[in-house]
């Protein structure tokens, strides 16, 4: 199989001989389209007037799935150039990152993913952000040196990062980027590292025993950086500070919010006995049920229900918004909740002593009294 994208990565159009595999599936010679292989998505484009929907490896052959049937013959094939530049640029960036990571930091690549929105490389060890930043600088140096991405065949002493077993009849193809990387690979690449333009490492996270870095290259990297810059500008405006001051200011604001929430809870706690005493009392099955609907913090609803039950020496129902809690010394709290939920819907449950949950909608005191009495 002659793969054009190996030897001529900048060829996006060619005359190809089409052989029919079955309805809407063909092989072509020479092979212009990169298949879905080695973590790199398939090229798309056209063969004659048929659109290429996917390119797959089937029993060692590269099969093109089309949106219409083609008869055997010679056609002009065109690769979707923007998509290829995206996948080849990101895939070559991944070679650079994996090669440098191993050479400079002893990190072995365990997995790669080239996506259309997001690309990742997994390494075998934990690393910190300063290593990621150093790797990013080293990668950008390789980009600015504009090194050739060379293809050689049958070179010995090269390990494979990708699984080549699925492709038969091909010689082992090795991709070399000067002193930066050398590995067996079947993917599509750019011709020189300068074509990548820019490599940005966007994030790092722990992945089992190792680390996953998220990266972007070229136009996608610029798009990402512009979006982040725009968010930072907005945050600086809101907080009226410089970028380095942002983490401290936000941490302070968050801890103040937590403190204030605590104080609000305390103030409400002090009001709960009054709310319990002023609960509207309904007689249900010769037991007293105190009902209080008040806009209180969710965390205090169960406490209020317990205080009402105590104050009425019966049952207490507290509702805030759609949050409901029932506490009872006489009636079955769980059964009362189910009775209310047959009218107002919602989720939750509990025991005869205490139940709590959510309703699908708010409810008025009058409506609640009618529900409770209607069940008698
Ligand atoms: Zn490659």
| Share of helical residues | 25-40%
Oligomer: single chain
How much beta, percentage-wise? 25-35%
Q: CATH H-level name of the largest domain... which superfamily?
A: Threonyl-trna Synthetase, Chain A, domain 2
The run of helices and strands is: HEEEEEEHEEHEEEEEHHEEHEEHEEH
Strand order of the largest sheet: 1-2-5-4-3-6
Shape: elongated
- The CATH topology of the largest domain is given as Threonyl-tRNA Synthetase, Chain A, domain 2
Q: CATH top level of the largest domain?
A: Alpha Beta
| SS class | alpha+beta
Characterise the protein shown here.
This protein is α+β, with helices and mostly antiparallel strands. The protein has 3 domains: 4-79, Beta Barrel (Elongation Factor Tu (Ef-tu), domain 3), CATH 2.40.30; 84-237, 2-Layer Sandwich (Threonyl-tRNA Synthetase, Chain A, domain 2), CATH 3.30.980; 272-374, Diaminopimelate Epimerase, Chain A, domain 1. The chain contains 8 helices and 19 strands. The strands form 4 sheets. It has a 6-stranded antiparallel β-barrel. A 6-stranded mixed sheet has the order 14-15-16-17-19-18. Strands 7-8-13-12 form a 4-stranded antiparallel sheet. Strand 16 and strand 17 form a beta hairpin. The N and C termini lie far apart (83 Å). Mean pLDDT is 90; it is low at 157-169. Zinc ion binds at residues 91, 95, 175, 185, 187, 189. The site of zinc ion has 6 residues, from helix 2.
């Amino acid at each position: 199989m002659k793969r054009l994208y190996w030897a001529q990565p900048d060829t996006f159009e060619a005359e190809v001989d089409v052989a029919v595999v079955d309805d809407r599936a063909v092989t072509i010679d020479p092979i212009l389209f990169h298949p879905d292989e080695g973590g790199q998505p398939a090229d798309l484009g056209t063969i004659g007037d048929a659109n290429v929907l996917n390119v797959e490896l089937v029993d060692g052959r590269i099969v093109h799935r089309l949106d219409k049937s083609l008869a055997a013959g010679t056609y002009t094939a065109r690769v979707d150039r923007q998509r290829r530049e995206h996948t080849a640029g990101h895939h070559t960036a991944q070679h650079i990152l994996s090669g440098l990571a191993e050479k400079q930091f002893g990190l072995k690549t365990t997995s790669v993913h080239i996506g259309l929105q997001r690309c990742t490389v997994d390494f075998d060890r934990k690393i910190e952000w300063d290593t990621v930043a150093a790797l990013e600088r080293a990668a950008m140096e390789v980009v600015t040196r504009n090194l050739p991405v060379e293809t050689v065949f049958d070179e010995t002493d090269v390990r494979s990062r990708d699984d080549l077993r699925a492709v038969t009849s091909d010689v082992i193809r090795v991709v070399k980027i000067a002193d930066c990387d050398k590995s067996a690979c079947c993917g599509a690449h750019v011709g020189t590292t300068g074509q990548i333009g820019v490599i940005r490492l966007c994030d790092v996270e722990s992945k089992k025993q190792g680390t996953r870095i998220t990266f972007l290259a070229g136009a996608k990297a610029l798009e990402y950086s512009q979006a982040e810059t725009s968010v930072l500008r907005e945050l600086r405006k809101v907080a009226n500070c410089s970028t380095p001051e942002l983490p401290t200011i936000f941490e302070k604001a968050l801890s103040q919010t937590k403190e204030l929430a605590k104080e609000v809870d305390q103030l409400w706690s002090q009001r709960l006995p009054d709310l319990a005493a002023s609960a509207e009392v309904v007689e249900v099955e010769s037991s007293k049920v105190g009902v209080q609907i008040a806009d209180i913090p969710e965390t205090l609803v169960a406490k209020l229900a317990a205080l009402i039950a105590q104050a009425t020496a019966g049952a207490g129902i507290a509702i805030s918004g759609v949050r409901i809690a029932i506490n009872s010394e006489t009636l079955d709290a769980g059964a009362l909740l189910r009775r209310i939920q047959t009218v107002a819907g919602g989720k939750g449950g509990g025991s005869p002593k205490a139940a709590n949950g959510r309703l699908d909608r708010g409810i008025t005191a009058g409506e609640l009294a009618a529900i409770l009495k209607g069940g008698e």
